[in-house]
Amino acid sequence: MKITRHLLHGDAAKKVAFSASPNHGGEFAAGLPDTIVLHCTAGRDAKSAILTLKDPTVKSSSHLVVGRDGSVTQLVPFNAIAWHAGKSAWEGRTGLNDFSLGIEIDNAGRLDRQGEKYFSWFGKEYPRDEVFEGVHRNESEISYWHRYQEQDIELVRKICSLLIKAYPIKLILGHEEIAPGRKVDPGPAFPLDRLREKLLAADRDGSGPPSPVIAKPLASGVVIASSLNIRRDPLASAPKAADPLAQGAAVKILARKPGWLYVSAECKGWVSAEFVRETAGKEGG
Ligand SMILES: [Zn+2]
């Protein structure tokens, strides 16, 4: 893929479609866009999201829609203001549409657990292996989310990397960060902190990594085992979320389940509670 004349072009490995949406404003001011805002469609598939984002009565759009089927569709050229952020604010600026490119990722979003079944807001059931369990950065309780496929995350990373080269991008933010309370996308199933740290630190040439936004911790702790596995779910058989944590590693405790702590270190995941000594801010329950 490459970007020329404010359009993303595909290649033999990846097709990119352009399907113009009428839902956009004029051109960005000089020196902009400097921010990428990531969203999830909270919908059934990319096709339905694209139809909605092209509907002139909806008055909403994004620059790109990344489909779970690997499709990439551009709706608004990168030099024009798309309407994806709505009422939003970040570091003293409001109305982030005027400063940012919007990428919608095809994902059902938050799921409702009913017994051992998981349903989207539009009533579709999702199998357990497509369910991510975690704590949203703006919340403190465990919740359930449609899992992003590794290939979707990699595709978004590649596109962000191209945008960083083509535009003066300094920030990658989630909609949930610029409109907290109103929006929850892309949600905890998307590795936003990891992705932006990788993308922006690589681009910043020693000016230091950006400070990631994390959920408010319940407590802190220190790893007391010589090495501690960190997993995606609170189960000894769950896949590992990252390399094991080393003895002495500091962790922030974001949630608890019997025998398990959901912690944030270099990444977030579940560890066996018996191998973490809690050091501060411990709360009952
Ligand atoms: Zn959004």
Can you characterise this structure?
The chain starts with a strand and ends in a 5-residue tail after the last strand. It is globular, with a radius of gyration of 20 Å. The strands form 7 sheets. A 6-stranded mixed beta sheet has the order 3-7-6-11-5-17, sandwiched between helices. Strands 14-13-12-16-15 form a 5-stranded antiparallel beta sheet, with no helix packed on it. Residues 203-215 have low confidence and may be disordered. The chain has helices spanning 46-54, 150-166, 175-178, 192-204, and strands at 2-4, 7-9, 16-18, 24-27, 35-40, 64-66, 72-74, 80-82, 89-90, 93-94, 100-105, 110-114, 117-119, 125-126, 131-135, 142-146, 171-174, 219-223, 227-228, 245-246, 250-257, 260-264, 268-272, 276-280. α2 packs parallel to α4 (192-204). It folds into 2 domains: 2-108 and 148-204, Peptidoglycan recognition protein-like (Lysozyme-like), CATH 3.40.80; 219-280, SH3 Domains (SH3 type barrels, Roll). The protein is built from 4 helices and 24 strands. β13 (117-119) and β14 form a beta hairpin. With 285 residues, the chain is of the alpha+beta class. Zinc ion binds next to loops.
The total tally of domains equals 2
Bound molecules: zinc ion
- Kindly state the number of beta strands: 24
- Could you spell the SSE succession in H and E letters? EEEEEHEEEEEEEEEEEHEHHEEEEEEE
Going by helix content, strand content and strand pairing, the class is alpha+beta
Main beta-sheet annotation? 6 strands, mixed
CATH fold label of the largest domain: Lysozyme-like
Distance between the termini: 49 Å
Shape label: globular
CATH architecture heading of the largest domain? 3-Layer(aba) Sandwich
Instruction: Report the β-strand fraction as a percent range.
Output: 25-35%
Low-confidence stretches: 203-215
Under CATH at level 1, the class of the largest domain stands as: Alpha Beta
The gyration radius over C-alpha positions equals 20 Å
Average pLDDT score: 90
Helix content: 10-25%
Strand order of the largest sheet: 3-7-6-11-5-17
Kindly report the name of the CATH homologous superfamily of the largest domain: Peptidoglycan recognition protein-like
Number of helices: 4
